[in-house]
Amino acid sequence: MTVSNLDIPAFKAPTPLLGRNRKSLRPFLIASMKQFSSVGVTFTTARPTPAAKYSTIYVGGDDSAFSQYGSFLGLAEDVDVGNQIPDDNALVFF
Question: Is 34:43 a contact under the CB 8 Å cutoff?
């Protein structure tokens, strides 16, 4: 399936955390780093240099745009075993 022209709004922290967007992502970053530390994956909220190849994970929103296909906690652009696509994208619904 191909999905194009997604409008992905900037991450907005839930109401109790308004104004602390980066801080509210910290638990997600810590859990992700622990989960993937054995395979050398790094997570950051800062955009890497323009020359760097990196994957982007968009965090926030919901799966309503995909409701006709089911219910999702997140979606990935591809199943990328061995990181053969170093600049792919994924969505994690918050």
Answer: no
Residue 70 belongs to some domain of the structure:
yes
16: left (phi over 0), alpha (psi -120 to 50) or beta: alpha
The torsion of the CA quartet 10, 47, 76, 14, rounded to 10 degrees, works out to -30
Q: What is the mean pLDDT of each run of 10 residues along the chain (94 residues)?
A: 71 59 70 85 85 86 87 91 87 83
- Domain count of the fold of the chain: 1
Residue 6 counted as domain residue: no
Q: Is residue 75 in a domain?
A: yes
